[in-house]
TrEMBL record:
GO terms for cellular component: bacterial-type flagellum basal body, rod. The basal body constitutes a major portion of the flagellar organelle and consists of four rings (L,P,S, and M) mounted on a central rod. The rod consists of about 26 subunits of FlgG in the distal portion, and FlgB, FlgC and FlgF are thought to build up the proximal portion of the rod with about 6 subunits each. Belongs to the flagella basal body rod proteins family. The keyword Cell membrane does not apply. Pfam families: Flg_bb_rod, Flg_bbr_C. GO terms for biological process: bacterial-type flagellum-dependent swarming motility. NCBIfam families: FlgC (TIGR01395). InterPro entries: Flag_bb_rod_N (IPR001444), Flagellar_basal_body_rod_CS (IPR019776), Flg_bb/hook_C_dom (IPR010930), FlgC (IPR006299). This is Flagellar basal-body rod protein FlgC. The keyword Ligase does not apply. Residues 8-35 form the Flagellar basal body rod protein N-terminal domain. It is found in: Bacterial flagellum basal body.
Length: 139
């Protein structure tokens, strides 16, 4: 029975982590076409780092929760574009855009969404198993 509760904990932690990932991807996509007058002021794409949480009561690793270890900025350099008439152009006529690949971000969004859906399904199935277990106990 305690294994079922560990599965709930693991899936819930994965839902939380994937939710953070989805929000981060949405932020990257929303800022993909922003401009700045210097590389330092340019939005940097963000990536979520996950970390497995070791359960001391589960040495076999049946259910290992995950947590967000952090959100890091991309190390890709902003993309300079010569646009002297742009309102954000610097004195040399350049604007800087974040090095965000929208296709990669869409793939990340689809992956996070599918992972989220899979964990919802795990929770639903585990709940059904728990209910059946309780019904057997009542008989």
């Amino acid at each position: 029975m305690s294994d079922l509760f560990r599965i709930f904990n693991t899936s819930a932690s994965a839902l939380t982590a994937q939710s953070v990932r989805l929000n981060t991807v949405a932020s990257n996509m929303a800022n993909a076409s922003t401009t700045a007058s210097s590389p330092e002021a340019t939005y940097r794409g963000k990536q979520v780092l996950f970390q497995t949480v070791i359960d001391q009561e589960d040495p076999n690793g049946v259910a290992m929760p995950v947590r967000v270890a952090g959100i890091v900025d991309s190390e890709c350099e902003p993309i300079p574009t010569y646009e002297p008439n742009h309102p954000h152009a610097n004195k040399d006529g350049y604007v800087f855009r974040p090095a965000i690949n929208v296709v990669e971000e869409m793939a990340n969004m689809m992956s996070a969404s599918r992972s989220y859906e899979a964990n919802v399904e795990v929770l639903t199935t585990t709940r059904a198993l728990l209910q059946r277990t309780l019904q057997v106990g009542q008989s």
